[in-house]
Amino acid sequence: MDGQRNGPKRHDSSEVGVVLDLETPVAKIWLSRIELALSDLYASHAHFKTRLVLNIRDSKKDIVSAASAAEKIGMLGQGYVWIITKDFTNLLGSLSFSVIDSMQGVLGIKTFVPPSKELDSFKVGWKSKFYNSQLNVMGLWAYDSIHALALATEKHGSSSGVLNNVTSGGSTTDDLFSYKVSPIGPKLLETLSGTRFRGLAGDFILDNGTLKTSTFQIVNVVNGGRAGRKVGFWTQKNGLVRTLLDSRAEYSTSKSNLKHIIWPGESIIPPKGWVIPTNNGRRLRIGIPVITAYKEFVDVTNYDPSTNTSVDYAIGISIDVFKAAVKALTYDLSYYFFPYQKPNGSYDDLNYDAVVANTTIRANRSQYVDFTLPYTESGVAMVVPMRDNKTKSAWIFLKPLTWDLWVTTFCFFLFIGFVVWVLEHRVNEDFRGPPSHQIGTSFSFSFSTMERVVSNLARFVVIIWVFVVLILTQSYTASLASLLTVEKLQPTITDINQLLRNGERVGCFRNSFVYGLLEKTGFPSWQIVPLNSTDQCDHFLSIGSAKGGIFAYVDETPNTRIFLGQYCSKYTLIGPIFNTVGYGFVFPKGSPLVCDVSRAILNVTETEEMKKTENKWFETVMTH
What we know:
By secondary structure, the protein is of the alpha/beta class. The chain has four domains: 2-257, Rossmann fold, CATH 3.40.50.2300; 279-377 and 584-607, D-Maltodextrin-Binding Protein, domain 2, CATH 3.40.190.10; 396-488, Helix Hairpins (Orthogonal Bundle); 491-578, 3-Layer(aba) Sandwich (D-Maltodextrin-Binding Protein, domain 2), CATH 3.40.190. Helix 9 (317-328) crosses helix 17 and helix 16 packs across helix 18. It is elongated and about 155 Å long.
């Protein structure tokens, strides 16, 4: 009897099924952690009457090949967003470097494991036993789960006697359905659901059969790091926070609370989430003209025609509006600018995905290409020299008043002089003497009022006359100033048909559609002068039509505004004299981008950004 009491203690065993993909290193690590958990548990709780026995099954299924496949088809490049769930993120520390390398820029969430002395001690022991194995939360969960199951089994087994084992044979079978259902399973599950303890992964609490987690860590996969770069946390109480020490009262979902994220393609700019489909994933080729009369719209710098390659730097109103429209799109649009030199302005061989320039929307052009909505004001205007009448008439000072008013004013001067003489010559010695003296004194008084008056009635007349003269003087001064200003700003001509009747020559830029408009109006070819630059246009306008120049310059309103910004003191604008839609971006016929870019242009033009863009470039012209 004493020998039996000192012999090996008998324990009730209960087999537990463990399903893993044994072909992967991850599964092997998990299995080792489960076995280690049982070993540690029973070593510290030798008095337990029950023991768990592992019954292992191989699932033979790979669950981490999706990332490598996505990289092969180019879906982990710039413009894409990848967010992985916590189950996958928790695996990062156990994945191979080749898989991690294919996941650069991926954003994920994983369960936060609070630090503890027990966890630090476990890590030391783990590294001593499994030097090359990575430790992650899945392994800690496996450790805590088998610990909880052992506690529940011990509690249930000690209170109900023997725990019946139900198996179907050996542990080498791969048939997952070979297990039978234990009759005490529901009671054991109920006991397990109520198990509470502080484990290696934190508080072990089951909520409806699921491990309850209140804090998640947000990580960014960069530089091949298995652990992932920490960018912040999410908690049930505060939402997104950069650190757990941030105890703000309000719940927040703002991404500004996180550290900056490096997205796929090593981009720090948040992608739109999806990109427009292009052939083989290439960037769009955006054509921009090199030769243009108005570089304020498109100006290509550092371009070498011999290389015929793309450029990274281009400026102008058209460029700014296009960039703003692309930014306003709901998806990412990757492109590069490709300069071209096309002096004939034809669109027959358009080999670009779009053309960004000061291109006028015309009905005949829309037969070959599609235009976006216009981004500039519409119309064709005419620039003519201003008439300067100040040097043409020496009698301009008489024009503020009519001849009738001049005569009436002069007569009143004589009348006031006579009235003052009548009232003063009897009592005032200044108004006495020879007749010539009295006449001179009376009339000079009406102009200067410098003579002394004695009669009260005469003083009253003088006061009224001073007010009348003051009002008349002010009106004359204002009328003369207005007359001089208006006359200076008067155009030499206001009707283009008058130019046609007078046989005056007009100018327009070479290869411009305005040439055709002038021909339709009736201008013969000898009356239309092709221009090559704004300097040439200024020169021809200065010398005039009679000396081989031009009488007027005709172009679209945006161009004429820039021209006047350069030569505002010499010319003025007339019109619009023809109706046009304005400038738009050009796309190949049937391009799916036209509608989206047009909608984006509307959004841009309705904001202050468009006004700022125009002011920036037009003010730049006026300051040069």
